[in-house]
Amino acid sequence: MRNHIVVAVTFFALAAASQSAWADEEAQIDIRGTQSGQSNLKAPLGGRVSDSGEPVDFMQAIVNDVPQGPFSISDGAFSFKTPKATSVDLSYYPPAYTNFYAAGGGSLTLTGSIFGLPDGSPLFTATFAPEIPPPYGAVTSAFVDPTVDLVAFAGLLTITWTNPELLNALGIGDFPGDGDGSISVTRYRNGDTGSLGTLTGFTLQLDGPVATPEPATAFLLGAGLLGIMGRRRTANRAKPSLYLPRFLGSVTCQRARHHPGAGGNVGAP
User: Fold this and answer.
1) Does residue 198 sit within a domain?
2) Residue 140: what pLDDT?
3) 199 and 97, same structural domain?
4) Which residues in the chain come in under a pLDDT of 70?
5) CB 251 within 8 A of CB 140
6) pLDDT at residue 173, rounded to an integer
7) Phi, psi (degrees; rounded to nearest 5) at 198
8) Predicted local confidence at residue 24, as pLDDT
9) In this structure, are residues 199 and 154 in contact, taking their beta carbons and an 8 Å threshold?
10) Is residue 139 included in any domain, yes or no?
11) 180 and 107 inside one domain
């Protein structure tokens, strides 16, 4: 009974803490691009997906629920390479296939000129996120249908760095510049003109600085942690937790229009 009382007091104390001290700040940055003609996007069967010099055109942002932009990006381009493929699915309409990338790693860099930055300035860097524990599995995949020149690549990113000048221009210069993200790159052949085209999209979710709690709030948090620890000691073992990134819903491989049901399964191993 004592432990239940401690937990109840703990949550009451945390609820009474100053909300301003724990206010969440966040920024969402969307970057888009299009290209006509052949691109450098490559996704060989069972291999790494790579691209270089893929253009991006503009950026817009939502900072603490306030829209900003769109802003033009001059000479914007990105390059990336995924880690090695961890599995391949050949069950959908061969010779089409889907590569899955369950291991984190690889690299991505986006460059361009915006907000007065010189041409070729790095704007952000990232790696590819690792798999989510079962039942979700790989969160990065590439569906390829060579019969229609289709490559549909999508995945989750771990943002490792964002240019401080870009953050300053958006009014979030105190943000650390790391966070989560998603990427989608689709190369297709236009059914009417027969020409190739590539559509690109990025979404960056950057978290604001961790607020320094006021003394009273810090005391309440300390009491809360002690209460939680006391409660957990009475359990035989800790329950497993499940981490579900905010971008999971955006990670789907597009499918060939004339192949209903073709495409990758994000939950595949």
Assistant:
1) yes
2) 95
3) yes
4) 1-24, 211-269
5) yes
6) 94
7) -135, 130
8) 67
9) no
10) yes
11) yes
In angstroms, the CA 254 to CA 249 distance is 13
Read off the DSSP letter of residue 147: G
Tokens describing residue 14: 């945390």
- Residues 46-68 as b/e (b if ≥16 CB within 10 A, e otherwise) read eebbebeebbbbebebebeeeee
> Do 159 and 230 fall into the same domain?
no
Pair (78, 3) in one structural domain:
no
Query: What pLDDT is recorded for position 133?
Result: 78
For 180, the token pair is 């989560």
The single-letter code of the amino acid at 196 is: L
Element holding 231 (H helix, E strand): helix 215-233
Residue 9: which domain range? 1-23+212-236
Look at the chain and count its residues: 269
DSSP 9-58: HHHHHHHTS-TGGG---EEEEEEEEEEES----B--TTS--EEEEEEEEE
Given the DSSP bridges, would you call strands 26-36 and 141-145 parallel, antiparallel or unpaired?
unpaired
Q: What is the pLDDT of residue 109?
A: 97
What pLDDT is attached to residue 38? 79
Q: At what angle do helices 215-233 and 2-15 cross, to 10 degrees?
A: 150
Q: What predicted TM-score, i.e. pTM, was given to this entire model?
A: 0.70
pLDDT value at position 93?
A: 84
